[in-house]
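Researcher: Go.
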Amino acid sequence: MPDSPTTGRLTGPAETAVLLAQGYPGSVWLTGQQPSRELRKGRYGPESITHPGKMLPTIARYAINTYTQPGDTVLDPMAGIGTTVVEAMHLDRHGIGVEYEDRWAKLAAVNIALAITNGATGTGQVYTGDSRHLPSLLPPQIRGTVALVVTSPPYGPSTHGHVRTPGARRGKVRKLHHRYGDRDNLAYRDHDTLAEGFTDILAGCRTVLRPGRHAAVTARPYRRHGELVDIPGMVVAAGQTAGLELVEECVALMAGVRNGLLVPRASFFQQKNVRDAIATGDPQWLSQHEDVLIFRRTH
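Model: Structure:
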């Protein structure tokens, strides 16, 4: 555990023991060595910052490098601004994304075009539609050809986003870029509806995956009205109900590692919420990682 809400010493063996507790292999991915803004600079359009739930590019990159080969097809059924697709293109894979909201699909198309301009050797395509009906959204020839799915469910309708203060950094702090746009987005649904919808999405992913290939889903718990919501547990249940086999549980660090210490990259509101909780006698810790749940289509 961290020594304070903002810094901590890595405890690799203990973390590994937790991952192995249920009999699944796991590893720690050093994916947080650079801030997200540095990872996206020149690689994604400037408007990409407005999406409330972007995947860290290095997480997608690590998964693609680990579970695929050049020329393979990689799919993200909840593509957002196209992070998975763009990283696949730069690694000489064929990236396919499906996004529900037109706004984010258009930004994904901008980022795909930028990847081509930047010399990416793979191809990229984004489709707009509801991934709960995934097989009907994609060309028939894609069925059974995808080598890897990389995706993440939404963590409710609002994220920590970014902060601004009026005039010379004085006045009340306000949020921006913290909400999805379409009220029909799964992000706005209750937990049970989100779980059902995500199960449908993973069932569609199973249909398009090649037998023996993988789906990597990033997730982390979050607090709603002070109560911890177990999104990783929901993902495990959804994947298994969809007919996928859970084969690995990994940790993707969002924090950097310097001389054995974590260098946190928490938002203003994450830090504030933890400090407020500690002040009221409810000890909490800043989240420094994403769970990465690796499923496999067995047949």
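Model: The longest strand covers residues 209-219.
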